[in-house]
Write a structure and sequence with these properties.
The chain is an alpha+beta fold. Helix content is about 15%, strand content about 35%. It has 6 helices and 12 strands.
Length: about 290
């Protein structure tokens, strides 16, 4: 296993991670990557599972997925993805994917694919926020004197170069201990050119959709995930793809959390192209527990 501080975290490396090995029909294997967190990043499993499902569908594009995170993934071991071809109809195809590691399910997902067709259209308006050119990259916002006070694992996670350029519109939650409304915005795009293949762009969008979504639910509570007594973990994730996407172009992620209760937080997100087209929506519920 490589030293995590020397791991390749470029967009090219991420594309390699999504290029799964076909073991036999409907069974695929993917590598895992350490991004500084104690377990496999949930977005990696989402992206790889969607890639596996897409490999079994022809001439149809994913329009929705619904997933559950069951166990922590081990980034030191590969993950096997088993695809069940549940249905192929005249316009829609449905796939079920199970992710297995060390003999146990760590994740499952259902995805639906549709033959391209035209229909009625309307959409929400894009929020009016500062453009990405007027904002700092997430890594540049983190001050060295502040980061030195954190454990080494957290330092690596926050300062590691990412495959995506992330530019928060508001101050990130872990730099601000004040309470505020449970909504935020970030401009995001891949750091580099991505091959012109729609399933790849959709898998990469699924990957990045798990970035910082659930933390929207802690904004009204004056706490953050860097506190030792705070436990947060994704439980499920849903996503709807409305239009074709280009992840190597700027996208605005608009996050909102309408509710937290029962030691769970719920957050939603809308993803807009630079031109204001709503290209995807997402939602996630996760554990939010204050430990004694």
């Amino acid at each position: 296993m490589n030293n995590p501080d020397t791991l390749d975290t470029t967009i090219e490396r991420l594309i390699e991670l999504l290029d799964l090995e076909s073991i036999e029909e409907n069974i695929f294997r993917g590598e895992s990557q350490d991004i500084g967190s104690p377990q496999v990043f949930g977005g990696q499993v989402l992206g790889q599972a969607l890639t596996a499902a897409s490999r079994t569908v022809k001439d149809r594009n994913v329009h929705s997925l619904h997933a559950y995170f069951l166990r922590r993934g081990d980034f030191k071991a590969p993950i096997v993805y088993e695809v069940d071809r549940a249905r192929d109809g005249g316009s829609f195809s449905n796939r079920r994917v199970i992710a297995v590691q060390h003999g146990e399910q760590i994740f499952n997902m259902t995805a639906s694919f549709q033959r391209p067709e035209e229909g009625l259209e309307h959409q929400s308006e894009m929020p009016n926020v500062k453009p990405p050119e007027e904002l700092d990259n997430l890594v540049d916002l983190i001050k060295p004197e502040w980061i030195e006070q954190l454990p080494q694992r957290i330092q690596r996670m926050l300062t590691r170069q990412r495959p995506f350029d992330i530019r928060p519109v508001e101050l990130p939650h872990f730099l601000d201990k004040t309470t505020r409304e449970p909504s935020k915005h970030s401009w995001i795009k891949a750091k580099g050119k991505v091959p012109d293949k729609l399933p790849l762009h959709q898998a990469l969008l699924a990957y990045v959709s798990d970035y910082d979504l659930l933390t929207t639910a802690i904004l009204p509570h004056g706490t953050n995930i860097m506190q030792n007594r705070f436990q947060m973990a994704s439980l499920d994730h849903a996503m709807w793809f409305h239009k074709s996407c280009l992840v190597d172009q700027w996208m605005l992620f608009a996050y909102d959390s309408p509710r937290a209760s029962g030691a769970r937080g719920f957050a939603t997100g809308r993803i807009f192209s630079r031109e204001g087209v709503l290209i995807a929506s997402m939602s996630q519920e996760g554990l939010m527990r204050l430990r004694n």
